Amino acid sequence: MYLWDANILRYFGQGHATLRAHLLRVPWREIALPSVVVAEVLRGRCDFALKASPAQAPHAHERLQETMHMLSQFQIVVFDQACAEVMNRLFKKAEQELKIRAQDIPAHYEHR
Question: How do strand 2-3 and strand 75-77 relate by DSSP bridges?
């Protein structure tokens, strides 16, 4: 399965030629979005829509609607408890083997 990040999703939305050519060789069912990517994309669109001036608002809300439609085309792989446990183990291993301290890990990925 191919899990796309936000950049690949943006290229898809822009109709990037190389990505489109690759999609002809990959079954659609093999492509999915991690729920973290979906949240990231929606946060950006929602922030834009909420902070838009009255003149920008129609365009901002149209873009939000387009983004929601695009996201609905994909399987979404949810970051569940099993993912959290694996991530926690990886962080502990990194701390032990690489001497990376928990406070050096970005806050949104920090394990508890």
Answer: unpaired
Same domain? For 51 and 68 the reply is: yes
Task: Note whether 60 and 22 are within 8 A (CB).
Answer: no
CA distance 55 to 58: 7
Query: Is the model's pLDDT at 102 over the cut of 60?
Result: no
Q: Are residues 17 and 48 in the same domain?
A: yes
What's the token pair of residue 33?
């979005």
Per-residue pLDDT tens digits for 47-57: 989 999 999 99
| pLDDT on residue 39 | 93
60 with 95, same domain: the answer is no
Q: Is 49 found in the same domain as 89? A: no
